[in-house]
From TrEMBL:
Residues 40-77 form the Leucine-rich repeat-containing N-terminal plant-type domain. GO terms for cellular component: plasma membrane. Keywords: Cell membrane, Glycoprotein, Kinase, Leucine-rich repeat, Membrane, Receptor, Repeat, Serine/threonine-protein kinase, Signal, Transferase, Transmembrane, Transmembrane helix. GO terms for molecular function: protein serine/threonine kinase activity. It comes from Rosa chinensis (China rose). It is found in: Cell membrane. Coiled coil: none annotated. This is Putative non-specific serine/threonine protein kinase. It is an enzyme of class 2 (transferase). Residues 326-516 form the Disease resistance R13L4/SHOC-2-like LRR domain. Its EC number is 2.7.11.1. SMART domains: LRR_TYP. The chain crosses the membrane at residues 901-924. InterPro entries: Leu-rich_rpt (IPR001611), Leu-rich_rpt_typical-subtyp (IPR003591), LRR_dom_sf (IPR032675), LRR_N_plant-typ (IPR013210), LRR_R13L4/SHOC2-like (IPR055414), RLP23-like (IPR046956).
């Protein structure tokens, strides 16, 4: 199952053209008589329609009085005076990447409501209806829309991840025989159509967009219906769940041959040579990305003489660079990103050598597995504006010929994640049109100087880092240098920018995204600079430096900040309460500093806070109860401080809470009952090294996603609950991989360096139950042997008695197993020998008796301290058992060995299949390419991803 949620912008020029066409035709009958007053009947219809709309920002406040033709969004035909156009599109710039994005305004920008009033039918001459990007809270598209037979333009699309309209598309839309333009595109499969019979009646249709509409049950008929639309110019069917068997390979005739744009990206179609497609000879743009490809196919695109834009990203191309023999001269953009292409790009470039001139403007070869030096012949593409070669294995330097030939065209140069080495060429400073330069994650050495930037007057986004141990040194001749650019985004990791905050950096006052990790910055953050960027900065990451002093006090001037990441520095003092005035704050990461004092009490001011990490500081006091008021909290990490008091009950409001790290503090009291009852989303619960007491409650077993449970070093008493076999994510050996993965991706994307902070810990590979160092008594419940996903089980240093559960060998993935310092008795079960991954075992200081089992991994665990302190144990690696005589006892043959290997393999396979089929396609898709640059796209992506993954979770359960 592949899930794609693509964000392809509608191709603007053609759309504009269509609107123009529409406007022109609606004005065709203009006479000189201008009728502009409003028909009373239509005025009333509009007012009834308005009554059922919610309008938080008062957009429709002009809808009063008699001149309805003057109202916002309304246009009348200036000959007849009838209302012709209702345009209530929400134009709030959510998708533009405009960083002046204001949350409050955004949330208020939607018109909404639970009803579209049928009074609209009073507008008999309505030809244009646009309600797109609003929030209709999950209503169906009303059937009566089909009675508005004058409609030429209908738009219910949404560019946001809302459940705006849902359900089956009403077949009454088939009555709209005048329709030219129909857009029902959404992002979440909330609309569907069982068959598209209605579509075939729309014979005037020129533009059709059904992106995100579930068409999986239409069989092959979707194509037959589309084939009844001879005027079609644009067809957008991306992410429609059109499956592999839904694409007919042959058609008797194709009669939508005027088609200019074909977008079928993000389906699961196996394009194996559908001949009819190459009869669409007018095509200028084809996007088939995110499908799969086979057959002798690529050459066929050459036959499409008009083709200008071709996107074949993530279609599973393999092998040598595809040959586009000849017809490359017309091509303006090509994406082959995320395919596995062997070798270099010389052969591809040779395809351009016949062109008297080429028009290539955008070339995207991200993640193609390309290897080698960059060929100078790239410089032939003199019109190139966007060059994306990231995530390959290019090495060497950037040839001079390329730089000088492209110096007046190139706007984007993305080379991140290759193995470019040596020094960064100074001539890059010639690329005078450059907006975006990304050199990060290569093996650069040496210096950056003023010369590298000399003509980069337009540069907005700059990223550099090296994977070498020696950092890149920002080596200025003129300490007072002021760069020619004003950056919006700067990402420098593993560079030497400091000491101090250099003047060139302080001259950058338009910054929106700052990530200066491990850059040698020291001293205090210059307040004046911070103040200058405070009104627009979204992302501030100054982690892993030597910055000292107090946290900035004037946090209240930051209005849009989403992320504060100041971890691994030398900040001291308290967290100022002004930080709570940043209402937009999403994550606050302050771990590994010397912060002290309490959390500010004004916490409840935040409404979107998701991640708080203050671990490894000297903070103290209670966690304020206000902390649970913003229910958005997803991760709270306060470990290794001096916090005290009880675990605050207010956290029970946080219904998304997935990770709670409270270890290494002075918390007291018991485990609150909301964990597992009110909040069941928890995946990580770390409470170790506190002074918690009471029983381990049964409600912990109601955490189906839990995979780390650490209660060690506390004062818990009573028995181990016998319900642990209800911890769903631990009883399936592959389930937790998926869940954990979701955590990481949804929360810590964006700056690669930081992702790794969490990734390196492999959080999602960890499955731990640690109850050690408590006062637990009674037997180890047999249910524990159901936790087949468990890798660590530590019950040491308690008062546990009775036998080791006989089926302990079921825990096939167990790597660490510690039962030492208890009162366990009886024999060690033979099944222990089936734990083939065991690397740490400790059974010492118990009352175990009899022969130590042998075989498999146990033979390698030959340290006698594993078993010592059990006076009645015998056998390898302790002394021989009395009955053994002179001969070493032969180990019991583990007859089920092969079977176990098989089981393990299938667990791993299950993981790989589950993981990659759900998540793999998501990671590899288009938008991830811009990883840490496109911060905005990331927010969008997170939302999309969260939704896509929710879908995935649902589907995975079926
Ligand atoms: C009629 O309306 C169109 C578009 O709304 C406008 O461009 C045109 O100037 C109007 N004609 C007159 C005579 O006002
Ligand atoms: C389009 O082609 C189909 C055959 O696939 C034919 O039956 C139909 O009549 C044609 N429709 C139009 C509108 O030309
Ligand atoms: C495609 O075009 C060729 C040549 O113009 C024609 O013979 C063939 O019938 C067409 N196929 C379809 C499916 O329309
Ligand atoms: C965001 O919009 C609200 C409402 O218009 C306004 O009060 C607030 O000042 C704006 N914030 C910023 C940072 O512009």
């Amino acid at each position: 199952m592949d899930i794609y949620v693509y964000f392809n912008p509608i191709s603007r020029p053609i759309l504009d053209f269509l609107i123009l066409l529409f406007l022109a035709s609606s004005c065709l009958n203009n006479s000189s008589v201008v009728v502009e007053s409003c028909m009373e009947e239509e005025r009333r219809a509009l007012l009834s329609f308005k009554q059922d709309l919610s309008d938080p920002s008062g957009k429709l406040s002009s809808w009063a009085g008699h001149e309805c033709c003057q109202w916002t969004g309304i246009s009348c035909n200036n000959r007849t005076g009838h209302v012709a156009m209702v345009d209530l599109r929400n134009t709030y710039p959510y998708t533009t990447g405009d960083y002046q994005w204001n949350t409050t305004e955004y949330l208020q920008s939607f018109l909404g409501g639970k009803l579209i009033n049928p009074s609209l039918l009073g507008l008999k001459h309505l030809s244009y209806l646009d309600l797109s990007s609003n929030d209709f809270q999950g209503i169906h598209i009303p059937k009566f829309i089909g009675e508005l037979t004058s409609l030429r333009y209908l738009n219910f699309s949404s560019t946001q991840s809302l459940n705006s309209v849902v359900g089956e598309i009403p077949s009454s839309l088939g009555n709209l025989s005048n329709l030219n333009y129909l857009d029902l595109s959404l992002y979440n499969y909330s609309l569907s159509s069982k068959n598209l019979n209605w579509l075939s009646h729309l014979s005037s249709l020129k533009y059709l967009n059904l992106r995100g509409v579930n068409l999986s049950s239409t069989g092959v008929s979707w194509l037959h219906e589309v084939n009844m639309l001879p005027s079609l110019l644009e067809l957008h069917l991306s992410s429609c769940k059109i499956g592999g068997n839904q694409l007919p390979l042959s058609m008797p005739t194709i009669n939508f041959t005027s088609l200019l744009v074909l977008d079928m990206s993000g389906n699961s179609i196996n394009f194996s040579y559908p001949k009819w497609m190459f009869n669409l000879t007018s095509l200028t743009k084809v996007d088939l990305s995110g499908n799969s490809f086979s057959g002798p196919f690529l050459d066929e695109f050459v036959r499409l003489k008009s083709l200008e834009h071709l996107d074949l990203q993530s279609v599973g191309l393999k092998g040598q660079f595809p040959k586009f023999s000849g017809n490359l001269c017309r091509l303006k953009s090509l994406s082959l990103a995320s395919n596995q292409i062997d070798g270099g790009i010389e052969e591809f470039l040779s395809g351009f050598s016949n062109c008297s001139f080429n028009r290539m403007e955008s070339l995207d070869l991200d993640g193609c597995g390309l290897v080698g030096k960059l060929p100078s012949s790239l410089g032939m593409l003199r019109s190139l504006q966007h060059l994306q070669l990231s995530n390959n294995s290019f090495w060497g330097s950037i040839p001079e010929f390329i730089i000088s030939n492209l110096s007046s065209s190139l706007k984007t140069l993305d080379l991140y994640d290759n193995i470019f080495n040596g020094s960064i060429p100074q001539s890059l400073g010639k690329l005078s049109q450059l907006l975006r330069l990304d050199l990060s994650y290569n093996s650069w050495e040496g210096n950056l100087t003023e010369a590298h930037f000399i003509n980069l007057t337009k540069l907005e986004s700059f990223a550099v880092s090296t994977t070498q141990h020696v950092p890149i040194i920002f080596n200025l001749i003129d300490y007072e240098w002021i760069p020619p650019f004003k950056l919006h985004r700067i990402v420098m990791h593993n560079c030497r920018v400091g000491p101090g905050f250099p003047i060139w950096l302080q001259s950058q006052t338009k910054l929106v995204l700052v990530s200066l990790e491990n850059t040698g910055l020291s001293g205090a953050i210059p307040e004046e600079w911070l103040f200058k960027i405070s009104s627009h900065i979204l992302w501030l990451d100054l982690s892993s430096n030597q910055i000292s002093g107090k946290l900035p006090f004037r946090f209240n001037s930051f209005q849009n900040l989403r992320s504060i990441i100041l971890s691994h520095n030398q900040f001291d003092g308290t967290i100022p309460s002004s930080i709570c005035s940043i209402q937009s704050l999403y994550e606050l990461i302050l771990n590994n500093n010397q912060l002290s004092g309490e959390f500010p009490k004004e916490w409840s001011l935040w409404s979107r806070i998701a991640i708080v990490d203050v671990s490894n500081n000297n903070m103290s006091g209670n966690i304020p109860s206000s902390m649970g008021i913003p229910s958005s909290l997803y991760m709270l990490k306060t470990d290794n401080n001096h916090f005290s008091g009880e675990i605050p009950s207010a956290l029970q409001n946080c219904s998304f809470l997935e990770r709670l790290y409270l270890g290494g503090n002075k918390f007291t009291g018991s485990i609150p009952s909301w964990i597992g009852s009110k909040v069941s989303t928890i995946t990580v619960l770390q409470l170790q090294s506190n002074s918690l007491s009471g029983h381990i409650p049964h409600h912990l077993c109601s955490l189906p996603f839990l995979h780390i449970l650490d209660l060690s070093h506390n004062r818990f008493s009573g028995t181990i609950p016998n319900c642990l076999n209800k911890l769903t994510s631990l009883i399936h050996s592959s389930y937790w991989h998926l869940i954990g993965f979701i955590d990481i991706e949804v929360t810590t994307v964006t700056v690669k360096g930081r992702v790794s902070e969490y990734l390196e810990k492999n959080v999602w590979f960890l499955t731990i139950i640690d109850f050690s160092h408590n006062d637990l008594e009674g037997e180890i419940p047999e249910e524990i042997s159901s936790l087949v996903g468990l890798a660590t089980l530590n019950l040491s240093i308690n008062q546990l008695s009775g036998n080791i559960p006989s089926r302990i060998g079921n825990l096939r993935l167990l790597e660490t197993f510690d039962l030492s310092q208890n009162q366990l008795s009886g024999q060690i079960p033979q099944s222990l020998a089936s734990l083939t991954f065991l690397s740490h075992l400790n059974l010492s200081c118990n009352k175990l008796t009899g022969r130590i089992p042998s075989g498999n991994q146990l033979q390698t665990l030959d340290d006698s301290s594993i078993y010592e302190g059990n006076p009645s144990l015998c056998g390898f690696p302790l002394s021989k058992c009395p009955e053994d005589g002179d001969h070493m006892h032969e180990p019991h043959e583990d007859e089920a060995d092969d079977e176990k290997l098989g089981l393990y393999t299938s667990a791993v396979l299950g993981f790989i299949i589950g993981f990659w089929s759900v998540c793999g396609t998501l990671i590899l898709k288009k938008s991830w390419r811009y990883a840490y640059f496109q911060f905005f796209y990331h927010i969008k992506e997170k939302v999309a991803l969260a939704i896509a993954l929710k879908v995935a979770r649902l589907e995975a359960r079926q």
